[in-house]
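Course assignment 3, question 2. Fill in each field.
Student: A.L.
Task: Predict the tertiary structure for the chain below.
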Amino acid sequence: MTTQKSIITLSLILGSAFGAVQAQSLDEFLRFSQPEQGASARFKALGNAQTALGGDLSSISGNPAGLGFFSQSDIGLSFDFSSDINNASYFGTNSKNHLDKLGINQAAAVFHFPVRKARGSNLSSGWLNFNLGIGYHRTGNFNSTLGFSGINSESSYGDFMALEDGNLLGDIGWQFGMVDENAAGQLVSMTTPNSLQTAYYRETGYQAETNISFGANYGNKFYIGANIGLTRIDHRMNRLFMEDGTIRDYGYIFAQNPSSRFVNPGHADYGTYNPLLESDYEFDDEYWSSTTGNGFNAKLGVIFKPVPEFQIGVSATTPTWYSLTNEYEDYFGITNYLTDGTEDADENVGDPLFYDYDLRTPYKLSAGLAYIFGGGLLSADIDYVDYASMSMSSSSVEDDRAFNDGIADTYTGTVNFRVGGEYMIAPQLLVRAGYGYMGNPYKDSSIEYTGQTVSGGLGYRINNVYVDLTYQNFQRNYSMIPYLLDDAAGFYSPVVDVKNQRHNVLLSVGLKF
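Answer field:
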């Protein structure tokens, strides 16, 4: 399977001390706006190419017109085991982290209500059924762990702090002695390159949707459906960045500014900062964030069968309107190992803060085509998602304008497609395969952030019981920046190369009655 490489700038997330509103970020908005289409193991094996298909519990959350294909009631449960693996490379040092999770991917039921026909009437004409579906499914799995470590020969965190003059992060650097002023009064780093930098990122949580859906069948030719979705987000993140480095020596600092608090005995803070010269230090920057909230959306879909072998499906999904609360806090600490053999420690502990905002995700338009033949089927879908239509609102008009302008400047509309097939290889035993591609939401074509899945599975049918087993693989290669420097001025941002893989095994069991 081919992969794409991208460079993701996470400065708003990773530089957590920028201010209250920036505990959120455009990257977080994008994450919440890319839900996975909830599906049974069968449709997952088909690459989720389901817009023109029906008769599966996934239709409750997918194209609700597919509910019209049910000729009896159905109840089922799907389990999902995921293993998320991140391989990272930072200045030539490789690291690997993984996180496993077992959970329920879908729980759903469809209730079949046939239309009673008058004696002697055509049983295959007019409205044939009106079916009701109720289902819960996970649309996002946020569980992931990423770690990296390496000797940064080009920069230090003090270089990042020096660029944040006037912000909290610049103030922290001043407090800890990691930055100082030069003769022109500008902040400059007091830390040397060749520092050991280590970071850990841990995300947990989920995105889920509960749907109430309706579907109907007209003459085995035309199927129509609609649903309402009640959504939930619970996303938690913990980031720890550590640096082991050294403070600059007397000669370097004196050349920058002879009046510096590090070298000028007449400075009021000389006694505090002069002992830090040439000291080794251990610096920690840790950040906790929790975003929770609820939302709602709606879907409308139709499926048309011009001939028995072909099915054409179309569906439209409204934006999801979320009401979210972000709780976050940060911690900064440093320990200096002085040249006289003593230690000096300092810290800055932030208070927990809360930020409420509303988020509107993009709308989505989907179309699909399915070909049904003896013993099997082929299905293909295409989506259009307009990520530039995302927006947020809060109690601050200024913040809203800044974020929404950023959305318009950063994101664009994109196309996703999925294909899949199913074939009966023996009585009651089916084999399936599928492929899915998620397009690039970034307007800047130099940032490639596509996602791809390959899947396969088996299905077994006996009487009214069915069991489906699917394996799905997702893979993405990208690069991320732990902290953002001014590359144009010769301060090169460090880059972590990451290879992310997620292995999923899904098991669905169900009963028709």
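Instructor remarks: The first strand starts at residue 7 and ends at 9. DSSP finds eight helices and 22 strands in the chain.
Grade: pending
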